[in-house]
Specification:
2 strands, mainly alpha, binds FE2/S2 (inorganic) cluster, two-stranded antiparallel ribbon
Amino acid sequence: MENETFEIRRPVKICLCKGVTREQIIESIRRGNHSLEAIAKDTTASTGCGTCKRQVQKILEEELLLKK
Ligand code: FES
């Protein structure tokens, strides 16, 4: 047990207003929501103050690139 490290992974919240995590956004994209509007409708991410829109867009672009 000595020298063993334990990593505690917390979900990364992208949208603080609505409490939406990166994983929830990725799952939404993988369910077929391929636009910012569709993700917002599905998860409520970016429907508050809107400051997370760029981050949501970036995750969307990364996920769509991975699919190619
Ligand atoms: S942080 Fe996402 S809407 Fe405010």
